[in-house]
Structures are given as structure tokens and as C-alpha cells.
Protein: Phytase
Amino acid sequence: MRLALPLLAALWLAACATPRVESPASTAARPVAVSAGTVTVPERYVTPENPEDELDSLATWPTEDGAIWLIATAKNTHELVVFDADSGEQLRSVGRRGPGDGEFLRPNGVFVHGDLLFVSERDNRRVQMLALPGFDPLGTFGQDVLRSPYGLWAHEPAPGTLELYVTDSFMDGDRFDVVPPLQTLDRRLRRFQVRVDVAGRPHVDAGIAFGDTRPALALHVVESLVGDPVHDRLLVADEHRERRALREYTLAGRATTGGIAPGVFQGEPEGLALWACTPDTGYWIAADQLLPLTVFRVFDRATLAPRGTFSGQVTAWTDGVALHASPTPRFPAGALFAVHHDRSVAAFDLGDIVQALGLDPACAR
Structure:
């Protein structure tokens, strides 16, 4: 197994026999006018549409031969879809529906660290690990404690050891919009410790659960989360229609009063990525899931102050995003990838975003 590379600036139950009812907004969204001051950044490409997939989360992986794979979860077809990140060409699909190794049931979150690929499966109630490039199954964990896993994010606090954070958006019954009682929301987040031994075998602990239960800080409907170890910050998107915020936790699991408060997002805060331009500066990009166009909101990495908003020419109703900050032949400044309407993927050049919003030129180098 290839040694884990430094983390690129990133980004991500009902019973198996009884699918959970999704939000009504996902099938009948009301168009919202793009707010004044939002600039247009044209997409460099949008992949051909495949409505059957129901794409959700994205992650990138650099191959041994210098290419970049873009890996997407396809919830409806219960597989992973692999694209060439530079061209948008679909390369292959991986997996099939089922509870076994290498099989998936409503895969949602996806995260890459080194050659390890983590996939959260809502309806298998687990996280599955696979080894790249062959997508070889390494095992699963969390089945005994997770109820409805969604988002994923990990970092490496010590060599050879990962801390993997998972959002668990279980509801009260099978309805999407019935939030459980406050006292049960202390399990909205779970942190696992993952270690891979010299033989390539993974070892995972039982994990610890956390989540604030105070009315003003409790997490109601969760999916995306991304951390920033430099600033000891974990941002968690609360998608509940009456909250719509990015809540802030420390990496140890303590809620703060920081983050992005309700009132900023017009739609659901969905895909979230950290754009690290220097070791301690950069930006957060969060997708405001709207029609007819997604609004991408940019915040200062350290202060979380707003730094501008942009939309593409066609990209709408975005779920997951992935930010690849390293240069590629087509994207010398790196790229932001975003799901478009559950059925395709759009690519933005980070240099175009820097120029359009007047961001730090160091981010385009």
C-alpha cells in the first residue's frame, strides 16, 4: 500500500427493507433568484447526464501514472462512479447492490486518504474501506453503532493513525423531517480511530459519539462535514429548514458558538470543502443547494468572514463537492468539482474563481 499523502484540501438509517422517505424539497424545489453580488464562473465541463445514478458525494485520487480520478457515490444504483477528473470522461463503475464486501446499499459519503477509500452506506448502516486502485475491500465498521451514516472526513493526527468523523442523521421513525428528541442528538457525530498495520490490515476502534443537545447548538439534520486541524475546527452542515447553518466543533468534539449562523444560506448547506492556499490561510467553499443555480459561498479560512459568492452557468441543486488543490494538465491551479442535479458532475477552474472573486493570488499558483 502506498504511503498516505498529505491530505489535499477537501472536501464527505432506515431499516434495509424500508427505505426512508427523503425530503419533499428534493423532488419539488421552488426556484430562488440568485442574490445580487453573485458572480458567474463558467464551468470548464459538465459530464453527460445519467439520472439513474443519483450522484451525491465526491472525492479525488491521484493515480500512479499521474492522472486524477474523481470518485462519486451513486445512491440509486448502489455503486461508485469513476471519472477522469481532467476530461470528465466516465471510466468505470464499481460495486453493486448488496450487504457484502465490495457491495453497497445507498452509498452516500466518500473520502480518500492516501490509498484508502472510505464509503458510508446509509442503508447498510456502516462505513466500508477499500484499497485503491483496485477497489479491493478491506473491511467494514460501525454497523453496531451507526444508524444512518452520511458524511465522512478524516485527518492523520499521528503517523499511521487516522481519525475518521462520520455524521449520523438518524430520524425519529422513517420520515426524513421528524427530528428525534434533543437528548438523543448527542450521537449526531462519531469519531473512529483507524490504523493500518505493516501488512496492510486495518484496525478500527469502537468510536466515540458526540453532539451538543442545547436547543441553540444541537445538530438536527446532518450530512456534510469537513475539518481544519490547523484551526482546530470541524464544520458540520445542519440542513434543517429552520436552521440551515454550518455548526462549529473542535476536533475533540466540543461545540462552539462559531460557524456560519442561520440566515446566510437560502437553501440547504450541502457540499463543503476547505481550500488551503498556505499552511494556515485559504478559504471554505460551501454549496447553497438552489434552483435554478447553486450558489457557492466562499468564507475566510481563519475568520469565516464572507469572501464572495459565485454560480456556474448551469450547475444546480448541488449535493457533494470536492476540491483538488494540486495542479493538473487541464487545471494548473486545481479544480472544484460539484454534483449537478444528482445526474452529472461540473468542474470549475480554481484560477477562474480566484480571478472572479478577487481572492488571494497565492491560491491560484
